[in-house]
Amino acid sequence: MSSASRDPQVVVEVLSEALPYIQQFSGKTVVVKYGGNAMTEDTLIDSFARNIVLMKEVGINPVVVHGGG
Question: What are the boundaries of each domain within the chain?
């Protein structure tokens, strides 16, 4: 995570924008396609994993499917 993304102001802005979606999808199951270019770089793999964990932490139930690419 870059130092810019840890800036409290940035965190507040991102969470403020995300809150309506978190509320809308909390308790829901969401299918996430994972494959192709997202699997080619370690930074993308790490980012994907962190995003899946975040979804679980806010009450969203992600189901990851291979993209077939």
Answer: 4-66
Is the entire prediction scored with pTM above 0.85?
Answer: no
CA 66 – CA 20 distance, rounded (Å): 28
Q: What count of other Cβ atoms lies within 10 Å of the Cβ of residue 60?
A: 19
Read off the tokens for 6: 């840890």
β-partners of residue 34 are: 66
Q: What is the pLDDT of residues 14-51, one digit of tens each?
A: 999 999 999 999 999 999 999 888 788 999 999 999 99
The helix/strand/coil state of 66 is: strand
